[in-house]
Amino acid sequence: MKFSAMVAVVALLLFSGVVSAQNRATGNFDLVWSVGGEQQKPLLKMVWDNTAPTMSALPDSIIHIKNVKAGTDLDQDGHKEFIVPVFHVENGVNRRSIHVFENRGNDRYVDVWSYQFPDEAGQFVTVDESDLDGDGVKEILVV
Known about the structure:
3-stranded antiparallel sheet; mainly beta; about 10% helix
């Protein structure tokens, strides 16, 4: 039963839509990512006051952020999170990491968890979340 549930989750991940973005400076704010609508007008933007200390959670050498999972509540505290896969270069080495940013209720997002994959981890396609082991706590899935 667990195997069939995992296959269903992986299939869902493989056929889900893609959200792509680039890091662009706009004054004191950085556009971290946006979801485009008709005629490329943004439907949803995530921006950061780059003078705030939480901006340092993201590497300066971001190449791209894609397949962001938004609107989940991993820790079940009532505050929604973004799961953000990041690809960047550090000292000429390709790096991949996952960051979880939580909305603290004041329109500010805080990096509450991150993981940097080993160099040999390869490329990941997407991220999602699910309670795979049935313990009531959601796990982050990387495919």
